[in-house]
């Protein structure tokens, strides 16, 4: 994913501590910018926003009104990390640094607009780019994870025989059904591509297998329009390894899990099974009873 250095506002407007509130208010009105880094002698010493100067006397110095503890990020910071910082501190903008120099600003609206490119417009779910990011984040946080890969069966025939409008309606409803099955906080649902969905979960492998089966059953038990029969197959990969493989890394582990879950899903579809666990036997409904 991109870094804040690629999307930040690069034409940086700064003010000085000795500037008056009146001057900065006029600058905000003229530039339509809601906040400026405060720089003294080339060094960042604060940030002033429209909220800071609201109600201040026009002759007051910015040094007395500014926020001195500025939340900054390096220009190499990922968009995901920047989003977490903004939400954790409850602020609207981050000052972007290159070494000791302020080089730009990234705002919440700018960041969220960029994130919008990674949201699937039909289902409202995050796209495939976030699967690896979320899985890597959890692994780096010391969490055990499993990946569930779910693929609708013979969905191409729906689009071909009934048209894409009906197909899109089914995909939308499938996303809603799956969102109702996964557990907020421990399971993360994504639209991977086309009629493929993925879940990154912190559940142990045994629980992940049961979740996959609940997802498949929830789809098949739904009453679909026009008498359409919608079914799905799922693959699961995960579980704690006793020791890392040679050359292993968290990034490799994530790619490995996603790939294995995808292959297991394909195997489930070919063999007419509901859920297949990568490298292990299928999960039958009776296993969940």
Question: What would a concise description of this structure say?
Answer:
With 289 residues, the chain is an alpha+beta fold. It is built from eleven helices and eleven strands.
Straight-line N-to-C gap: 42 Å
Q: Which structural category do the helix and sheet elements fall into? A: alpha+beta
Instruction: Trace the largest sheet across and list its strands.
Output: 7-8-6-9-10-11
In percent, how much strand structure appears in the residues?
15-25%
- Biggest beta sheet summary: 6 strands, mixed
User: How many β-strand stretches?
Assistant: 11
**Shape summary:** elongated
Put simply, the count of helices is 11
Low-confidence stretches: 242-247, 281-289
- Chain-averaged pLDDT: 88
Rg (C-alpha, Å) = 25 Å
User: Which H/E pattern describes the elements?
Assistant: HHEEHHEHEEHHEHHEEHEHEE
Helix content: 40-55%
Tell me the layout of helices and strands.
Blueprint: H1 4-7, H2 21-31, E1 35-40, E2 43-49, H3 50-53, H4 62-65, E3 72-74, H5 79-89, E4 93-98, E5 101-107, H6 108-115, H7 129-140, E6 146-152, H8 155-162, H9 164-181, E7 187-193, E8 196-201, H10 205-221, E9 232-238, H11 250-271, E10 275-277, E11 282-283
Parallel strand pairs: 3-4, 9-10
Antiparallel strand pairs: 1-2, 4-5, 6-8, 6-9, 7-8, 10-11
